[in-house]
Amino acid sequence: MRQTLVRVVGGVVMSALAFGGATACKSDSGSDSAAGGDCGYKIAFFGALSGGNAQLGINIRDGAKLAVDQYNEKNKDCAVTLVEKDSAGSPDQAPPLAQSLIQDTKILGVVGPAFSGESKVADPILSEAGVVIITPSATNPALATNGWKTFHRGLGNDASQGPAAAAYIKNEFKATKAFVIDDASEYGKGLSDQVKSTLGSLVVGSAVVKEQQTDFSAVVQQIKSVQADAVFFGGYVREAAPFLKQLRESGSQAKFIAGDGVKEEVLVTGAGAANAEGAILTCPCMPGEKAKGTFAADYQKATGRAPNTYSAESFDAANILLNGIKAGNTTREKLNDFVNKYEGEGVTTNFKFQPNGELDPKSVQIWAYKVQGGKIVADKEIEQG
Amino acid sequence: MNFSFVGDNFLSLTVTGLTQGAIYALVALGYTLVYGVLRLINFAHSEVFMVGTFTTAVVWTALGYGVNDPAPGALGVVLLVVVAMLAAGAASGATGLVVERVAYRTLRKRNAPSLIFLISAIGASVALFETMGALTDRQPRGIPVLLKVKEVFSLFGASVTNLQIVIIVSALAMMVLLDLFINKTRLGRGVRAVAQNPDVAALMGVNKDRVIMLIFVIGGIMAGFASVLYDIKVGTTTYTVGFLIGIKAFTAAVLGGIGNLRGALLGGLLLGVVENLGAGLFGNEWMDVVAFIVLVVVLLFRPNGLLGESLGRARA
User: Fold this and answer.
1) For an interface test with B, which of A206, A221, A247, A275 has the most B Cβ atoms less than 10 Å from its Cβ?
2) Of A363, B26, B141, B183, which one is least surrounded by beta carbons within 10 A?
3) What is the pLDDT of residues A31-89, one digit of tens each?
4) What are the strands, taking DSSP E only, across B118-230?
5) What class does CATH assign to A16-156+292-363?
6) Which of B17, B137, B149 lies at the smallest CB-CB distance from A217?
7) Exposed / middle / buried, residue A95 (Cβ in 10 Å: 0-12, 13-18, 19+)
8) Is B10 on the interface with A (CB under 8 A)?
9) How far apart are the C-alpha atoms of B6 and B290, rounded to whole Å?
10) Which class is domain A159-283?
11) pLDDT over 50 (residue A235)
């Protein structure tokens, strides 16, 4: 029922836009040129700028903002505006925000939505209206399987981390006995299954932990009794932090590796800095300071901070949209065609999208991060081969 | 099924199970005291515990003991634990008191049916944890590592750490103190009297409302102590932390005989050990299944729990 309502409303809005668009454009460009070389085209940022996950959103917004500012510097005669849509990271707030976004016909593309949860509800609305989506951070693999025709992902998805983590266990840890844990979530189990299948006979045991579990005595005992020398944790930090604490307190020195769901400061504060030391965390995100060119310095200059998680990805996503606008693709449809066919070098990687919107597998980079002296720092890009 | 693993590690699993069980037992006291006196299951008790876990974190931070500081010396540990227990006990006791005054007393004065109490309890629980969720942005919070955990002695190959000793010993000490309080003191006699027969107790001059407030506060203090031990053991807390612990503690109370203090202790320790052995035997994901099957089987043979039900009559 609600679905049909959304469709009807969306349809009405769209047809209204289609009819009104031509005339509106003309009058707009007239008034804007008076304001000083502004063609009136906009791209939007969509993600959390407030609430508990605001830090990631701010990283992304600042990356996109840097790209837009640099573009406007070079193209003074036809500046592009960055519209900021603060979703607070909440899937509940995302649909109305997406509705308001599609009603502004000058918004041609979106950098975001930042998180997978909000993407799931906002992307169908944006896609229906033809707004080009390039997410620099939402990594749930299922997002690419819905046939949303304007969806693009500017980085690897969660699934790409599994084989990389396995490669790290094999090549860097040189482990001979790996123990694999998952939390039975779509994310955690997906990762663990890939680690298991890639490692094959190196896996000496596995366990499933439960959401909100805090006592891991039995699992820890199991790890000790099989004398595992590496532990992979597919899940989130809420369970990983107490698990790691209890693993270390049991005396086990098995090396610990987990996916980006655990790449949070609370891993260190929750497990204790000494217990977390040396833990490895994989992420399809590139450390900002490793980005190519002058990105890191420019970002530092513009924001006063070093680039952080997803800043560089977001800079690239915004630049792809801006390149399209510069090349004269000033309707949503044309811009989407442009992004679909896009091939070019960004500061993070070489961009080329598959038909489902996923990044070409050859371009996907997985980075290892490491807990060192109580901080999560970049370790190295994981070579898979 | 993994018999050889459990066979090889039976003592280790028992020790770690007892540690977890000691925390269940302390929380279970709150359920059992309230049930024993009011015949009411205080579902908001899990949130009383949750408040304690955050209080500890806040107090330690306020004392300048941060998450990345090295573990303090023995004297520092004792000091920090005592301060945390006082603060968490006070905060949890106060929360328990507020719950009783706001959610239960008005209903009791109007002789509301027990279903209404249940709804009120669940409402209080949701209100408390949602408030904490909003205050903490729903993020887990790390708690400073208090003890540098090391093996103190080895029991037939099962290592016993200082952390486990601290938790089990302090939980047992609380239990003994509470047991003495209920059985030997004047206030305790009042509690037992109200539990046995509230109307007669009132006729004999026991202030019923004061006794009820007292048990909510005591239950809260015990949950506060448990929350400090939990923080030392687990190292993180979230606004939903009470849910699972609450269910387990309630189960422990029923297992031992709800309304019976010594039953709560026995039930808590037993539940901790059984679920740990169950997790070892069938795999971690079957932990709760095993624990609850054991509960059902015990209740089939002893419907009133292992030690019987009544707070007054069981001389608890």
Assistant:
1) A221
2) B183
3) 333 334 567 899 999 999 987 778 889 999 999 999 999 999 999 888 999 999 999 88
4) 141-142, 151-155, 158-161
5) alpha beta
6) B17
7) middle
8) no
9) 14
10) alpha beta
11) yes
The average pLDDT across B97-122 equals 92
The runs of H, that is alpha helices, within A215-348 are 217-225, 237-249, 265-271, 273-276, 295-303, 311-326, 332-341
Contact B241 A209 (CB under 8 A): no
Write the ipTM. 0.88
Q: What is the pLDDT of residue A29?
A: 37
Using a CB–CB cutoff of 8 Å, tell me whether A13 touches chain B: no
Q: What is the mean pLDDT of residues B212-222?
A: 95
Which residue of chain A comes nearest to B69, CA vs CA?
A273
Q: How far apart are CA B255 and CA B241, in angstroms?
A: 22
Burial of B63 (0-12, 13-18, 19+ CB in 10 A): middle
Q: Return the closest-CA partner of residue B48 out of B30, B36, B32, B61.
A: B30
- The pLDDT-based confidence of A8 (bands split at 50, 70, 90) is low
pLDDT digits 0-9 by tens, A105-144: 999 999 989 988 899 999 999 999 999 999 999 988 899 9
Nearest to A215 among B5, B20, B159 (CB): B20
pLDDT digits (tens, 9 = 90+) for B259-301: 889 999 999 999 999 999 999 999 999 988 988 898 899 889 9
CA torsion sign for B240, B243, B244, B245 is positive
What predicted TM-score, i.e. pTM, was given to this entire model? 0.82
Show the tokens assigned to A148. Answer: 């949303």
**Measured between beta carbons, which residues in chain A are less than 8 angstroms from residue B16?**
215, 217-218, 220-221
Sketch the domain layout of chain A as residue ranges: 16-156+292-363, 159-283
CA-nearest of A378, A372, A380, A355 to A145 is A355
Residue B164 has pLDDT above 60, yes or no: yes
Phi, psi of A216 (to 5 degrees): -115, 25
The answer to whether domain A16-156+292-363 and domain A159-283 are alike in fold is: yes
CB A45 within 8 A of CB A98: no
B208: nearest Cα among B304, B306, B129, B104: B104
Determine contact, residues B41/B234, Cβ cutoff 8 Å. Answer: no
Q: Within an 8 Å CB–CB cutoff, is residue B85 touching chain A?
A: no
Question: Which residue carries 């509960």 as its tokens?
Answer: B295
Q: What residues of chain A lie within 8 A of the CB of B68, using their CB?
A: 268-269, 273, 374
What do you get for the CA distance between the two ends of chain B, in Å? 39
Q: What is the mean pLDDT of residues B120-146?
A: 89
Contact of A271 with A297, CB cutoff 8 Å: no
- Grade residue A1 by pLDDT with cuts at 50, 70 and 90: very low
- Best of A217, A224, A238 to substitute, by most chain B Cβ atoms within 10 angstroms, is A217
Res. A349: pLDDT tops 70: yes
A271: chain B residues, CB-CB within 8 Å: 142, 235
Helix (H, G, I), strand (E, B) or coil at A177: coil
State whether B283 and A241 contact (CB < 8 Å).
Answer: no
Give the dihedral sign, CA B141/B145/B150/B154.
Answer: negative
Contacts of B5 in chain A (CB under 8 A): 222, 225
